[in-house]
Write a structure and sequence with these properties.
The protein has about 210 residues and is an alpha/beta fold. It contains eight helices and seven strands, in the order αααβαβαββαβααββ.
């Protein structure tokens, strides 16, 4: 039997630690229907940041079926989350899923395109989590950072895109254009002087930007 690499060992440990029945059920549903959701190690990282920074108010851009939404809400019952989803079908499904969990009182859902539409929030946020259209990361970052509290955090998922961004290895013109946009965004946030940013090779690549 071949030995597991440190990364493979870590990933298996993270997978084994997920015992929340709602999240386990949703991960199976997403796999069965090929719905993109945050990878298990990415969710573990997100939850750890929430714990360490004592995050209370979260804005999520990209609900999908509510997997990461529920994952973040599960950290602490004092956490309040506003989440935006543009796909009507996914929005309706996530709403029904969340409604039937104990996390429902913690979550406020918004239907609409986070890039094109304006959303009114009666609060600012300790954490903004962006997991939406990858080509729109910069627009989303710049549009919603005004809702971030001082010393708040913005986390963006899918910044390595199956290692294609670091290797630029794809024969598809559309994928090359997308990976180029992601790479441009990565350079952009690293060079923002008003944030301390690190990009971690966790899941499919996650950035953590702390507002100075």
């Amino acid at each position: 039997m071949s030995k597991k690499s440190p990364k493979e060992h870590y990933l298996s440990e993270v997978n084994l630690k997920e015992t929340n029945p709602v999240l386990v059920s949703l991960s199976h549903l997403a796999e069965k229907r090929h719905i993109p959701i945050i990878q298990p190690e990415g969710l573990a990282f997100l939850k750890q940041v929430i714990q360490l920074r004592d995050i209370k108010k979260i804005l999520e851009i990209g609900t999908a079926i509510g997997y990461s939404t529920i994952g973040m809400a599960s950290v602490n019952d004092t956490i309040q989350i506003n989440t935006i989803e543009r796909n009507q079908t996914l929005f309706n499904e996530a709403r029904e899923i969340i409604k039937n969990t104990s996390y429902n009182p913690q979550i406020t859902m918004h239907l609409g395109d986070a890039v094109e539409e304006e959303f009114a929030f009666n609060t600012t946020f300790d954490l903004i989590f962006i997991d939406a259209a990858k080509a729109q990361n910069r627009k989303l970052f710049e549009k919603y950072e005004r809702f971030l509290n001082p010393k708040g955090i913005i986390i963006v998922d899918n910044l390595l895109f199956h290692d294609m961004v670091s290797t630029q290895h794809t024969t598809s013109r559309n994928l090359r254009a997308l990976t180029r946009k992601i790479d441009e965004f990565n350079r952009y946030i690293i060079n923002r002087e008003d944030y301390d940013t690190t990009i971690y090779p966790i899941g499919d690549g996650m950035s953590l930007s702390i507002k100075r």
